[in-house]
Design goal:
One of its GO terms (molecular function) is hydrolase activity, acting on carbon-nitrogen (but not peptide) bonds. Helices cover about 35% and strands about 15% of the residues. It is an alpha/beta fold. The chain has one domain: TIM Barrel, CATH 3.20.20. The chain is globular and about 50 Å long. The two termini are about 15 Å apart.
Amino acid sequence: MRVPVLAYHAVNISGNDYASNDPRAFAADLRLIDDLGLRIVPLHWVVDQLLGRANRDLERCVALTCDDGSNFDFEDIEHPTHGRQRSLHHCLTDFIAERGKDAQPDLHLTSFVIASPEARAHIDRGCLAGRGWMDDAWWPAAQDTGLIAIENHSWDHNHAAVPLPGIDGMPRGSFLSVDNRARARAEIAAASDFINARIAPQRTTLFCYPFSHVPDYVHDEYLPRFGEEHGMLAAMGDGAEPVHPDSDRWNLPRYICGWHWKSPEALRQILLG
């Protein structure tokens, strides 16, 4: 098993070409992956394989993820500067309509969402356009499509746009400040509880580190020791290599669009490599 996991941020829209628009890149990458004869599979299949919970053939496979849980993941939105934007969900359905269900029968996207409604509102006002682009009304509908899984991207991202004080007095702007059980419980277990209530009877089992910051306490202590509290099976970082049998389950690697690749040609090299 050597499965590249690709990550996108659907709010990354500063233009309408590949390099400046993650949804446009996502749509193009679906076709590139298919053209290369690779198979898109759910991220939880990769985790199940790593943990010995399943035995599937994952040769020549790719998994897709997106972070932060903006409405751009699921809904087409009129961007005030760059016009109508196709959601990641509709990029998936467009691909199915174009190439047929049999082209990628296991097509799937994992969306890591921020749980706190208050934090999402502050991020929407402070970093986006203040138009309500980070609500949670779409989560159950997305989960019900069978094409998208809703997973855990923390309670509030400990984001700088969220006013002080942070949880347990944490300084804002870095997830590395999550250095004790109280802070970890508030950021991870509380997020799981909130998300689970919204997507029931489904449950979140995968965590993604905000900012790709991996605190020693969370990695070494909280995630491995307090599974009954938080319910996570694995956690995603960056790492820029495929997930393989020796990967660290509490810091699984991903390639991030706009950072690890910025063009179809660069992604082609990653996938062929």
